[in-house]
Amino acid sequence: MRVNALFNDFGKIIELSSQEYLSVNTNRFKEIFNNHGVLLIRGTKVDRDLFEKFTGHFSSDFIVHSAKVRKRLSKDQTVQTVTEGYGPIVLHSEMAYSPFSPEVIWFYCETPAPVGGETTVGDGVQFYRKLSPRAQKLLMSQKLKYVNIWAPDRWLTHFPSESPDEVIQKMTQLGTQAHWINSETLYFEYLRSGITKSARGLAFANGISIHRQYEKEVNTFQESHDKQVRHGIFLENGDKIPEWLCNELTEIEEKVTQKVSWQNSDIVMIDNLTVLHGRCAFDPALQRSILLRMANWPKAA
Ligand SMILES: [Fe+2]
User: Fold this and answer.
1) Whether the Cβ atoms of residue 159 and residue 172 lie closer than 8 Å to each other
2) Which residues of 179-205 are buried (b: 16+ CB within 10 A; e: fewer)?
3) DSSP structural state of residue 240
4) How far apart are alpha carbons 261 and 253 in whole angstroms?
5) The predicted structure's pLDDT at residue 197
6) What is the distance in A from the centroid of ligand 1 to the CA of 124?
7) Are 111 and 275 in contact (CB under 8 A)?
8) Tell me, what's the pLDDT at 3?
9) What spacing in Å lies between the alpha carbon of 31 and ligand 1's midpoint?
10) What confidence score (pLDDT) does residue 301 get?
11) I want to staple 289 with a disulfide (CB 3.0 to 4.6 A). Which of 42, 103, 111, 192 is the partner?
């Protein structure tokens, strides 16, 4: 295992031998990961099967992304395609709007776009440090309130055999306030801090900016026939996210964004609690295939 800097200020590149993909030293790996937030793993030709085996060393608690636009490719459904389309996607923490948000995500590059299409990452710890005292104070004093309206395809992914009452019960146990709008549609509110406490320090990790993008481009994130606005974000007290904060976030995003220039077979491992990710645009005529797997760490016995 060879370890080198990925960016000037955070992340590492890990070079592995082909044998090391099959027998990962997960303790050493996790130590580097916890200290650096994002790892780019290179070294051998990786196919879907090896991607599944490699990620399987770290956890068995994988999470299916329930958005219908993400195809499920592996037998267990947890190796999936990323958000469709070719436009840019702003920095975000994956699924911060729901209790199904993963602690760790892996991207695997099957086919890089020849030009553009880089995955972007931004260190949430640096992001937090760049926030104005006013923004830090607001985000430390109020959680964010994510509002979701889920069609059956989404809630059935998480609750395939539960009765309607059991779904509400489980969503309540997961910390949401949930009710049925009708027999098909689940409404829930989820409160979560926009700031994470981590070993690396306080980190800005949430979905404020991507919710703003979602409101403008619903079709990027949903099937084209589904025009309903299904996600909203507010401050804990119900106020809209202030305009001054959104503007400040856009400015900081520009400063902290780093690009991962994909090579075929690359795997990128991201701490979803302290590192944000997004995407650069690419020409729709170009081929690009990036796959995703998401997990929580195994629970301590
Ligand atoms: Fe994402």
Assistant:
1) no
2) eeeeeebbbbebebbbbbebebebbbb
3) B
4) 18
5) 96
6) 15
7) no
8) 95
9) 24
10) 57
11) 111
Strand partners, 150: 186
Residue with tokens 């776009």: 113
CA of 70 to the centre of ligand 1 (A): 11
Backbone dihedral region for residue 68 (phi beyond 0: left; psi -120 to 50: alpha; all else: beta): alpha
Residue 222 is predicted with a pLDDT of 72
Q: How far is the CA of 79 from the centre of ligand 1 (A)?
A: 14
How close is the Cα of 165 to the center of ligand 1, in Å? 30
Residue 189 is encoded by which pair of tokens? Answer: 């509110």
- The CA distance from 110 to 149, in Å, is 33
Residue 69: the pLDDT is 67
Ligand 1 centroid distance, CA of 259 (Å):
14
How far is it, in rounded angstroms, from Cα 67 to Cα 64?
A: 9
Candidates 261, 291, 254, 295; CA nearest to 276 is: 254
From first CA to last CA, the distance across the chain in angstroms is: 28
Q: What is the CA(207)–ligand 1 centre distance, in A?
A: 10
Q: According to the model, what pLDDT value does residue 20 have? A: 93
**What is the C-alpha to C-alpha distance for residues 276 and 291, in angstroms, rounded to an integer?**
17
Residue type, 129: R
Q: Where do the domains of the chain lie, and which CATH numbers do they carry?
A: 2-83+102-113+260-275+283-296 (3.60.130.10), 127-250 (3.60.130.10)
**CA of residue 199 to ligand 1 center, whole Å:** 23
- What confidence score (pLDDT) does residue 153 get? 86
| The pLDDT of residue 181 | 95
Low-confidence residues of the chain, pLDDT below 50? none
Whether the full predicted model's pTM is greater than 0.90, yes or no, is yes
User: Measured in angstroms, how far is the CA atom of residue 27 from the centroid of ligand 1?
Assistant: 26
